[in-house]
Amino acid sequence: MTAPDPSKNAWEDFSRHPFWEDLKALDPAVVAEKSGASFREEDGGIAYAVDFMGGEYELRTSDSSARSPLGRAELAYYPKIVLLAYLVKSATGPAPGLAGKEVGPQSLPWGDLFFTGPHELPKKQLADAFGSDPGALARASEALGAASRSGLAWKARLLPYVEVYWYLDPPDDEFPAGARFNFDGNICYYLTLDMIFGLTNYLADCLVSLKGA
Q1: At what angle do helices 123-130 and 134-143 cross, to 10 degrees?
Q2: What pLDDT digit, counting tens, does each position of 20-31 carry?
Q3: What are the residues whose beta carbons fall under 8 Å from the beta carbon of 116, sequence distance 6 or more?
Q4: Sign (positive/negative) of CA torsion 14, 1, 92, 59?
Q5: How far apart are CA 156 and CA 148, in angstroms?
Q6: N or C: which end of the chain has fewer CB within 10 A?
Q7: Can you state the percent helix, strand and coil of the chain, rounding each to 5?
Q8: What pTM value is reported for the model?
Q9: Which residues contact 159 (CB under 8 A, 6 or more apart)?
């Protein structure tokens, strides 16, 4: 699975994000067990390896850095924060694993209030990019390693315990193209709503950038 990288927010300093202090205070064995990551001890800290969109990314507490798999570009600021937040939240909550049940964003705790206005999920971005060319979304989704479902629907496990589903409704004589995103029912045990928002936007950016590839 090859995920292109949107433009970086160079003004952000990932190494100084407060989530690093949270992660350093945690037992690495607990982090690994609850998040599905692995870890190794190294001089000055712990190196965690976590699967993200089909590639193994490394987060190192010794220098507060993130390393991409060989052959992949460095992640932009926000996806790196999502990885960091995932490790911390997994280790500090119940972490029950995947629910195996799909829910809409409005069904998540406080989702009906959060996913509106400036936090609207990138449904329009997906519909505008692929509404007239569903085949391009199928190819882009396949390139990201997503599993095709019935109709114009896909799902992918983006992190060990985070599954995202997306759908495309082509335009017809009555309605314009539409799209939507759903999630595994336990996603809020692993990511806060703002991290879910950021992850879904990153996924949409990756899909759009693969259009025509």
Answers
A1: 120
A2: 999 999 999 999
A3: none
A4: negative
A5: 9
A6: C
A7: 40, 25, 40
A8: 0.92
A9: 36, 50, 51, 52, 83, 86, 190
